[in-house]
Amino acid sequence: MNIILASQSPRRRELLERMGLSFTVHAADIDEHMDRSLPPDKLVEAISREKAAATARDFDESSLIIAADTVVALEGQILGKPHDEGDARRMLSLLSGNHHQVYTGFTVRQGKRAITRSECTQVKFRTLEPREIDAYIASGEPMDKAGSYGIQALGGLLVEGIRGDYFNVMGLPVCALGQVLKEFGVRCL
Questions:
Q1: Which residues are catalytically annotated?
Q2: Which of 74, 114, 182, 187 has the CA that lies 20 to 30 A from 5?
Q3: How would you write 119-175 as a 3-class SS string?
Q4: Whole-number pLDDT of residue 32
Q5: Structural domains in the chain?
């Protein structure tokens, strides 16, 4: 079966590889606008559906498309990828000492059949000193990540604890995705 990851995210690519899947990468060409009227779970589901549909147009109906989108939410405010270092500083300052949620929506599509799900993980940041925020931003790590941090690298130093799927915070809820893939005849175990 031809499996396509509709994402250029190195983290999603790594997670699919860890799941033992053989796939090719074909980034979805969509405008990832944020309809701020949608709750975070519905927003990431909608964007993942759009990515899957856009990618499916470039492949035959037997191809299996996996698409995803991730956002961070704090008290209902969606924090996407930072626009610049000032925006990253603002987001990290907001997250400092607080609980927030990471939402990832994913869609698995083959032909006209599509299943979309979302997962939410609770994350608690420790209180950050301004110099720590500046040092983290200087590392460059926050600049391409929702909420301005990546738990799998230096950003793990900011996280006091999580409740839920760790891999969801990286950008792909592995357990939930594995269950949906079984519905398409793909068994990872």
A1: 69
A2: 74
A3: EEEEEEECCCCHHHHHHHHHCCHHHHCHHHCCCCCHHHHHEEEEECCHHHHHCCCHH
A4: 66
A5: 3-183 (3.90.950.10)
